[in-house]
Each structure stands twice: as structure tokens, then as C-alpha cells.
Amino acid sequence: MRDPYSVLGVTKGADSAAIKSAYRKLAKKYHPDQNPDDPKAKERFAEVSSAYDIVGDDEKRRAFDRGEIDAEGNPTMAGFNPFGGGGRSRAQGGANPAFEDLFATFTQGRGPNYRSAGFSSGGGSAEDILKSMFGGGGPDMGGMGGAGMGADPRMGGAGMGGPGMGGAGMGGQARRQPRPAKGDDIKATARVTLEEVLAGDKVQVSLPGQGAVKIALPEGVEDGQTIRLKGKGKASATGGKLGDALVTVKYASHPSFKTDGSTLLMELPVTLDEAVLGARISVETLDGKVALTLPENAQSGRTMRLKERGLPTKGGKRGDLLIKVLIKLPEEGDEALAALMKRWRTDGRYTVR
Questions:
Q1: What pLDDT, in 10s, does the model give residues 247-259?
Q2: Calpha distance 261→89 (Å, rounded)
Q3: Is the CATH code 2.60.260.20 the one for domain 258-347?
Q4: What CATH code is assigned to 186-251?
């Protein structure tokens, strides 16, 4: 990262109020919620947040100015020379001079206010500022942790350092600074027609706080399926990655079809004569009209299948269209039909019970 002072547009001698004011302006300007269609704004926002994390904290700022940490907050080796001189201090029990020189090198230049427990954020942290402007927030990033130099009882001295220097001391274990937390996910619903599902169209969906965006329907998308849009969620209060948008697909109701997975279901009303004598009937499908042959003596409730006239599947194929035959009689009655049925009843040619 660049020098944090130049990132925030302030001088090295700027006071904390000026630094905080500069950060507020830049964070508001580049916040991803204000720039949903500008990916560069997200990068700039993260850079501004990282810069303020360094110079917006008094202890981190002093450490950076002394060259003890870099612009990323990682410890440097500035001023460390394991073979150099420096003031001498004698450990209890009389350690040898070589160790005294090494001990002095580690301890020289540390004032009485030096803390080994890590840098801590004040009340004007980036997280606090973002909360005041946008709400929400994220977990505390904590201090720059690391293990200090362990004690050796044979030398009669106590261990040095602590968890606050961000790197591994001699005889200790390293502990890395935790990554910034990712922003929260958001949820939305996309209502789509069966024709849009068949065509794999792009559909419009409204994302909370971001307005309308268009998304492409994947092949074989199912009713109730969730589509994840990376980086379309809320911003992180700690400069981490943006959250995601979770879009649930819902099929809109259709006047002719019902769905069962990739299978389409429909009812086909036919007249009594069509059912008895058979007929060639035009049937509406998602692909347009097709001719269906209704066989003679078709029973009401019979199901006929049109192969691959349903919805797409993930394997690149299509489901079927199932057509249920329903015999419909005249709504207001028909004298000729009634006379025919009376003769039919008298003849008693067949029974169903």
C-alpha cells in the first residue's frame, strides 16, 4: 500500500482531528454502497480504510513514524542489529557480556510508555466512523499480535516482549494479524416467467440498498434455487471484502401450466364427440402450438406425454409436457345429445359400475 498519509491526503504533521475528517470524507466518497457499479471504488475504499487503521490510531501512527511497522501494519526490522552495541543491563545471576549486548539491543530505545500487548484502536477507529455513517459493523480486528522472546531460566532473566509486536520473537511463536471481516450478505427474490426460464434470459432483480440489477438465469434453474452474486452485498466495516447477494428464484404462476421440477403439467378439455371419435387438436406449449392426436375412445383423466416440451435441465436436456384429458359437456345442455343418451341408456350397451 502507498504511504497512508498520502492516501488520506494529509501531511505527516496533521493532527488526529484532521486525519479523522479526511477519512470520513473519503470513506463516504468511495463506500461501495454509494458506488455499486464502480469496482475501482471498492479498491480505493479498502485502501483508505487500511491507511486510517495505521495513522488513525495514536500508537500505530507513532510506530509507523518511527519505522517500526510498514504501511500494511507489519513489523519491520528497523533499528535491529543483533551484533550492535547499546546500553548494557546486567540480568540477575550475572549473564555473560555477549548476552548483555544482545539484550541491550532489543531493549534500547523503548520508552516508559512502550507496550508489549499490541496496538489498540481508540474511539475514532475506522469501524466506529463507518458505523456512524452507514450502520452495521464488523468484529474488532484486534491488535497486531506476535510472541515475544521467551525466558531462559539458565540465564537468570525473565522473558521479553509479548503478544503486541506482530512477529515472532526469539523462542516464541508467530501469530498473524487476523484478516478483515467480510461484509454481510443481502437477500433478494427474482420472480421469473416459465418463458424466461426456457430462454435463459437475463432478468431484473432489486437488491436492497443498490437498486435494480440484471442477472442471467443459469441453465436448468429451479423454483426456489438460490443464486449467489459475489461482491454485491454490504461493505465491510473493517476494510474486508464485500458481502454477497443471495437471490432466490421464484417461478411466476402461468395460466396454462403447472410445474413439477422440469416437467410441465396441463389440462386439455375435449368434447364428447372428440373423446369418442378421436381428433387432431392444436395444443399450446412454451415453444408454440403443436398438433396432438387424440385417439378414439379417449377416457377423461387420461394423461398424454409430449417428449422434451418441458423446462430445461442442468444436463442440457428438457423435461416433458404431461397433458391430462378432460371431457367437457355443454354448459347449457343439448336436446339432440340428450335424446341420443336416452336411446343409449335404453339399449344398455355398457356399464361402468
A1: 999 999 999 999 9
A2: 79
A3: yes
A4: 2.60.260.20
pLDDT score of 318 more than 90: yes
List, by residue range, all CATH 1.10.287.110 domains of the chain. Answer: 4-155
CB atoms within 10 A of CB 180: 21
Query: pTM of the prediction?
Result: 0.50
Q: Would the pLDDT of 124 be above 80?
A: no
Closest CA to 120 of 146, 141, 137, 104: 141
Burial of 262-289, coded b for 16+ CB within 10 Å and e otherwise, reads: bbbbbebebebebbeeebebebebbeee
In three-state secondary structure terms, 279 is strand
- Residue among 240, 184, 215, 211 at smallest CA distance from 36: 211
Residue span(s) of the chain under CATH 2.60.260.20 come to 186-251, 258-347
DSSP state of 22: H
Q: Indicate the pairing of strand 279-285 with strand 288-294.
A: antiparallel
- Gap between the Cα atoms of 265 and 257, Å rounded: 5
* DSSP class of 239: S
Residue 190: all three cell numbers together:
427474482
Fold of 4-155: Helix Hairpins (1.10.287)
Go through the chain and tell me how many residues it has.
Answer: 353
Residue 334 Cα to chain centre, angstroms:
64
Strand order of the sheet with strand 258-260? 258-260, 263-270, 321-327, 303-306
Beta strands 263-270 and 321-327 are: parallel
